[in-house]
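Hey team,

Sharing the Cholesterol oxidase run so nobody has to redo it. Sequence (581 residues) first:
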Amino acid sequence: MTQKRFLEAIIVGSGFGGAVMCCRLATRWPGKVLLLERGKRYPKGSFARSPHDFANNLWADAEPGQSRKLNGLFDIRNYHRMDAVVSAGLGGGSLIYANVFMPAPAWVFGERWPAQINLSTLAPYYRIAQGVLGARPVPPAEGDARRTIQRTGLYADFAQADGGTSRAADICVFFGKGYANRQSGPLPIGEQERNRFGAVQTSCTYCGECDVGCNVHAKNTLDLNYLYAAEKQHGALVETGSEVTCITPLNEAGDTDSTADGRHGYRVDYRDDAGTARHALARRVVVSAGTLGTNELLLRCRDALGTLPRLSQRLGQGFSGNGDFLSFVTGGERDADPNYGPVITQYIDYGLQQPQPGQPAFMLEDAAYPAFAAWYVEGLRPAASPGYVFSRIARTIKIFKQRWVDQLFSGKWSGSVVAYANAVLQGDVSYRSSVLLFMGQDAADGTLSLKRGRLALDWPQTTSRPLYDAMVACGERFKQFTRATSYIPQPTWAWPVRNNITVHPLGGCALAEKPAQGVVSSLPGVRGQAFGYHGLYVADGSILPTGVGANPSATITALAEWIAEDITGLAPDDTLGVPHA
Ligand SMILES: Cc1cc2nc3c(=O)[nH]c(=O)nc-3n(C[C@H](O)[C@H](O)[C@H](O)COP(=O)(O)OP(=O)(O)OC[C@H]3O[C@@H](n4cnc5c(N)ncnc54)[C@H](O)[C@@H]3O)c2cc1C
Ligand code: SF4
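Structure output:
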């Protein structure tokens, strides 16, 4: 056995959990922490935009013994009654998320969460996470038309009409270092400067492309804060294109031994994009491969490879889609302009922050999508609506006749191209359509398991139906408010398909006081450590015992800080150990 890579820690995955663990453990053990991430790095300007590049921007599992065909950003999974979208790349979900930072409401910690964790115990870690991630609301427009986001106002008006309140969401977007530190107003749109950790960022250009990767690095993605400091300041070793396939404990002699309990360390096997097998050894392993990746890896190690047989029988139980429900309202009478500004700017609370007994608890957030997608939607309209084609032809003929008359009598054609373009493009469906993002407290009763060597999910959707029905009713009210032509609950929701989609998969490795209740410990001294093992930790969305209703990355980050502090014995702060940060 080679001893050349006996490290202090190996981190699997670089999302919110993995980035925190990498940075904090590398601070404790500089140069002796290795992070393995299956996806690629995404430097400024590298996110796909053309149809050609998007075709390759997907993740597909490699067949055993073969090299990977697709190693792009979007990992889209289809499961029983619930599909999921997650990310592959250095920075994990932060690369494609909508930037919202929202602590969980206090009552969420009441049921199924261990006694050690509640909003008060997590509050200091939320504060640190918020400081590192630079979460603040979009700056006020203050007379600058470029900072006015129409849809924010539309949602505020709807909230008022619906008896609620629209509140500005804290978002992890760069509007200048001074704005992030609350020391000055925003940096002018499009200007660049170094953030507090030294990475160059651009003040947000309001392009609405946050969910397909920010090409100007205005999103405060993890590669620009936690991971940046980990690599540049604390000497973390980072290998991308490295997918972990197996974790095996070592015995006293240093050999792999599936009967061992981890006190002598672990061997981590992984493969690169070409399919080449590699391995590394470490005293500790932190699994932060995201809810789907972590459950899949641990289930495989326990049930298929037999290398981690002591893992709790609760592994895979308690999956939550965080109550996600996507909807569309099209053809409203109010301008919505969903192609402008950071993807989410506000939220309307329906009993999530202030629960009503017996009522489903959820919230409604606005959403932007890239302008290039709006062109695509316009291109689809003729196929979807023959009446639309006729109306456009009629309008074009009218303009043409008018121009022809102009030409006859004045000999002028000037401006006709402008008039044609205006006639064809005006009244586009996207400008008056809205994307409604609902999320709330679902039943968190899904089960993840291995079927034919791959992760499978069983989602008993009926137990969460009252929540989804309340969301659909809210969507209908939004339609009436905007006098829209149609409300479309998510495209796969129509009977008999009734399939849901989540971008917030959670659970399966729940924090608990005992292995009969969960998979990793919530007790001091062993926070986040898998029951049955020493030095094997889980830190990502999979450790949440329930959904949180709110966007979960803040809670995942805070929990990872809470676990890292327990492992390292170092009190965290939001400077990440970077001088003058
Ligand atoms: C479109 C979209 C919008 C979202 N918007 C928001 C939002 O506004 N606010 C919010 O709070 N949340 C949002 N989310 C959810 C958020 O991104 C996730 O909750 C969060 O990223 C989960 O963090 P994590 O640490 O659990 O794992 P992830 O961020 O998913 O990271 C896991 C990492 O592990 C890697 N990995 C997986 N398997 C392996 C393996 N075997 N070997 C090596 N590496 C591996 C993956 O490539 C990935 O990089 C959004 C998600 C999506 C898709
Ligand atoms: S709106 Fe555009 S520039 Fe601003 S964070 Fe999102 S993708 Fe980046």
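The two ends are 42 Å apart (CA to CA).

Ping me if you want the raw files.
A.
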